[in-house]
Amino acid sequence: MPTTGTKAGKAFAVALASRGITVNAISPGITEDSILNSLLQEVQDGIRSWHVAGWTPMGRLGTLGCRQAASMQLRLATFQASGVHL
Q1: Which residues pair with 62 in a beta bridge?
Q2: Contact between residue 33 and residue 41 where contact means Cβ atoms under 8 Å apart
Q3: Alpha helices in the chain (DSSP H)
Q4: What are the φ and ψ backbone dihedral angles of 62, each rounded to 5 degrees?
Q5: 73 or 84, which is more confident
């Protein structure tokens, strides 16, 4: 289910907000440069066609690389990210 991470993040945010604790989460899902590339080609093709058919709103796999994910994590860990909603 693609929204599980989002739902969990929102649940934690609501539960902890009264204590002044903010919750940030990154859930890029399957990306082009992820573990996907180590799977059999048939499986890769199946996953890609599943995304194109509408599994994701953009109709494609994510393109977030490790460096971009790390950059986002660092940004979300700062005090300035207290009001960021992505």
Answers
A1: 31
A2: no
A3: 4-17, 41-50, 66-76
A4: -70, 160
A5: 73
User: Are 26 and 39 within 8 A, CB to CB?
Assistant: no
Are the CB atoms for 29 and 55 separated by under 8 Å?
A: no
By CB neighbour count within 10 A (0-12 exposed, 13-18 middle, 19+ buried), where does 23 fall? Answer: middle
Q: What is the pLDDT of residues 11-69, one digit of tens each?
A: 888 898 899 887 877 776 777 777 788 889 999 899 888 888 887 777 888 777 777 77
Residues present in the chain in total: 86
The model scores a pTM over 0.70: no
Tokens 């590339």: give the residue. Answer: 37
Alpha-carbon 22 to chain mean position:
18
As beta bridge partners, residue 31 has 62
25 neighbors 5 (Cβ within 8 angstroms): yes
Instruction: Give the per-residue pLDDT at 18.
Output: 92
